[in-house]
């Protein structure tokens, strides 16, 4: 089994996916713009071969470069789990005659308006939305949809350049702030709890499923620096309100023609119990979500994804034993971290439930919290009960302080 893997060293989770492919018996050909010497050691150890291309993000150039480099050798799979490259991977598959989802199918997981149109045609509840390209189109759509509404990039990832708009004055300000966005989705604001639905699928059928809850909703977390956002995996997937979201997610998968691989979907649960589709990508969720899912059941989804891709099956026998939370911390002030307060006492109180503590240390420069959810570091904890996990997550949010200047 020969697998071409685009961008094997970045983002941070990618070396473990390459490792997973090697562990299930694949020969892995990594493809990237930088030299092989710059790859993480874990990536270099797992690769069979590395192809350096001049323009990874130019799809035509990428196809041309790989066609020359492979020299007619048979390739069994072409994979990428990084949002900007999922369509490129599909176009390489088509050019090389490799099995997998087509570019048109993958476009449905990348273009937010197209995905909503396809999901809505399947009879599933989606937010009312319109594709907009000009200021006039934004204002016209807002007039039809009414406030509050959401304006987000058609091909964005996460909450970048995503805004809630409540008034015409706010709309004018958001239009100015997003002038660099060439195409956007103007859509109904859905008020309610926000969850994920994450899967590994084989030929469109979920063989692993996970649900997380965002605390608070990402849009709130991305607009308030003082918040310590948390994402919590749900141990008990049999709860009726969780099952409603899972049923919706399975319908979305069918509507969009999912093939084999990871998916990451957001959905909402309104106060009246209605579940509403948000958006979906045919890749793994970011910000260490896969580690949380692994810790929830003590499994290795890097390897299980690889097993699904290569051999059409997974080997997951461990039950869901924990609710697992990741808490992201943001320092007060700008510049260099000067001190951390409350951490030692938090560890003393919760030692048995802490899995990872990866906060920046004094002397290190703050990250731009608007550009990365990981912010100035994170903690991962787990607990067998939902209430226990929330209590510990709130403890981390409330009592650990980071200060910069």
Put the structure in a nutshell.
This protein is of the alpha+beta class. The protein contains 14 helices and 18 strands. The chain folds into four domains: 2-100, Rossmann fold; 128-188, Dna Ligase, domain 1 (2-Layer Sandwich), CATH 3.30.1490; 191-321, ATP-grasp fold, B domain (D-amino Acid Aminotransferase, Chain A, domain 1, 2-Layer Sandwich); 323-405.
Overall structural class, as computed from helix and strand content, comes to alpha+beta
Radius of gyration: 21 Å
Major sheet details = 8 strands, antiparallel
Mean of all residue-level pLDDT scores: 95
Tally of helical segments: 14
> How many domains make up the coordinates?
4
Which of globular, elongated, flat, extended, rod-shaped describes the shape? globular
What is the correct CATH architecture of the largest domain?
A: 2-Layer Sandwich
Regarding CATH, which class of the largest domain? Answer: Alpha Beta
Please identify which CATH superfamily of the largest domain we are dealing with: ATP-grasp fold, B domain
Distance between the termini: 52 Å
CATH topology of the largest domain: D-amino Acid Aminotransferase, Chain A, domain 1
- Low-pLDDT stretches are none
Number of strands: 18
